[in-house]
Amino acid sequence: MENSKSIVLPVTLKGGENYLLWSRTAKAVLCGRGLWRHVEPVTTQPGETTTVVAVADEVKRFQEDQAVLAILQSSLDISVLEAYSYCEKAKELWDTLKNVFGNASNLTRVFEVKRAINNLSQEDMEFNKFFGKFRSLWAELEMLRPPTTDAVVLNERREQDKVFALLMVLNPVYNDLIKHLLRAEKLPSLDEVCSQIQKEQGSLGLFGGKGELVVANKGELATANKSYFKPGERKPFVCDHCKRPGHLKDRCYLLHPHLNPNPGPSKWKDQRDWRDKRDRREPRANLSYDASPSIESAGCSVQVRGEALVRTPEEGTAMAASSTEYVKKADLDALIKHLKESGNAFNSLKTSKSLIVDSGASHHMISDVKLMSDIKPAVGDVIIANGDRIPVKGIGNLNLFNKKSQAFYMPSFTSNLLSVKRTTSDLNCYAIFGPNDVYFQDIDSSKVI
């Protein structure tokens, strides 16, 4: 037992989610040191007499038992150790942890493991790491459901799988019912579960408060209850946080910026005020105040489209429209200043290709080499919507809001595609889509980039 001081279990028990892994590693370590008999002692046969040697070894056995207890305690998470530090013997601690976390018929854990396997996806994860998670989940499921040839057990598991499949696709409003069903000693049959769901649906329609349910007579209910509504009796909503009417605290844009359908800093309001004042002035030539603002001058026009500022040549001479109407330099400078401050435009590009925000693109796909830097040759294809494969010529860096993001160089594309997935991941931000615009909001500071 002299080497017990150096024994350290490789896994820390944090609860029921990793008990099986912890128990397997602990058993392997203790068996390798010849200490497993303290956890599962060998029973003596009736009629055996206690010898003097056995009495003499009692003190040594107690010492070894305490050493095993210390080894097990060293592998427990601090929260688990505080809860079960009262166990004074190794077997007592082992049995207690097994009863609490190692219930082989734990329906909740079986459901969690099956749902984790069903939702497991590799995405950008390395295959070895992904396969390790996959094998770990399957191994735990096999420990919870050991192989058997018993027809009764197989039929019971088949019925359970039907119920699990139904519970996985239910509306989130039934989460309380799912927890109640999984806490039972035995999982109900599929028919009984459907009956419980029907009852729960009726209670939701009666008491409400858990979200909307799709019902056939929804329009009829609204019409039938319309006569009971009195506008004078309804009190306006007032937020407890900002003290403004029209919403409650849980829907306040100041506390939950992602709920704002048109978020932005106060400078947007200043820009709108400036635009309103501008519209009230007398009309001037070469300025277009469309839904997509543009600035036309002699020989060119600049159009704003979401995140891109596109400059295209014009054949006409707009300045010749009127010799008395012109654009003041101060007005043009003020407009350019507001565009730069609002972050709605990149630097003017000497190309007719704009940056298009694409929510379906897996990577940035840039056709304009001037937008990229450090381009390195690459081999691969990109599959477009019609199934064609477009070769990737290289991989480089794309500068997004002073941060670099990797992009594919696709010279054969007619547009520059900006991936929403890559942008939100690299910039750590939200992508907020409006009717005509797209905004990127920083997650940490809640400010629009």
UniProtKB/TrEMBL annotation:
This is Retrovirus-related Pol polyprotein from transposon TNT 1-94-like beta-barrel domain-containing protein. It comes from the Eukaryota. Residues 356-424 form the Retrovirus-related Pol polyprotein from transposon TNT 1-94-like beta-barrel domain. Pfam families: Pol_BBD, Retrotran_gag_2. Residues 267-284 have a biased composition (Basic and acidic residues). Residues 259-292 are annotated as: Disordered.
